[in-house]
User: Fold this.
Amino acid sequence: MSRPLRVAFLTTDNREHFRDYAKPKPFFGTAPEAMLHGFAQLREIEVHVISCVRQPVQSPEKLADNVWYHALEVSKIGWMTTGYQGCIRAVRRKLRDVQPDIVHGQGTERDCAIGAVMSGYPNVLTIHGNMAELARLFRARPFTYGWINAWLEEFTLPRTGGVFCNSAYTEELVRPRARRTWRVANPLRPEFFRPSTNPPQDSVPRIVNIGLVCPRKRQLEILDLAGRLHASGIRVVFEFVGGCPDDDYARRFRERLADAEQAGFARWCGELSADELVSQIDRSAALLHFPSEEAFGLVVAEGLARNLKFFGARLGGIVDIASGLDGAELFDSNDWDALAAGISRWVEAGAPKPAGAAGVMETRYHPRVIAQRHLEIYREVLASDS
Assistant:
């Protein structure tokens, strides 16, 4: 019997991202985390997760029966200021031990993509956020974090064997710069497919908004919308879930939110674990996601997987996710009047929730479905390279 396909999976350990080195186990972004759950269900694959960290961390040897974990300590000089040279070298040393068939870099931000491209092995990349497009939209200044990430994306895309694009929008941006592209959605974490406990709904419907408080997610503008609806007599409560950093935009959001909380039409729920988020969603009647740019929109699929009514911006990957679903309403990304009218009509109709969205999300975004597609593409790349 032939051995399983061996994959080196380069991703960011969030202990590094949050400088939380005391945690005994690694944790990752929502899409890579779900991807690993999917890989753990496939006997035909062996996965070695590799993450670079600045400080020593304690970690388990394995995350699942067929998933190993390797944390590589890299000194401060080896990161962005030197083009991630220390990370690249540490990864290459580890790969000589692992001897993978293929290397998969997760995201063109930070060190993962360039580590894969410079690995010396057949490699592919996944786009999680469109760094060059974000730098253009927000006019990133030279040598800032956003500008450097855009440069890394431009450097790595033409040099990899192919790019996993999570939406038609991402694929359109990537195709001119890559040898090959495949449209493969991000998977949902398994918690979002567990049976619902069907908690009782409040008499005043809740609309949940999920994401880091930042200009791209437009929580301030959504708070203005909530205020307009409240002033017009539409009884609905907006609940904001996600991190709130210490910057000017987030500070203004917190100040305005205090008045909204006192008036009773909005509240902030903070950051939640996956289990807590599922419970929060199940208590809600609708999800609102109205960013100015979105590569995929994982929170949209998460809400629809729990049969929420969805209001969103007609852009990026949101269009792909909402395609063919009766419970989803999309609006032009700057048409706040149409969005307000849509929410008003829904509330006046009794705030109904859709019934069939969850089943569609499972067929499209279950971790095992997406992991199986990854395995097919890995074999395709290796067959064509040989």
Notes: The first strand starts at residue 5 and ends at 10. Residues 6 and 256 are 51 Å apart (CA to CA). The two ends are 21 Å apart (CA to CA).
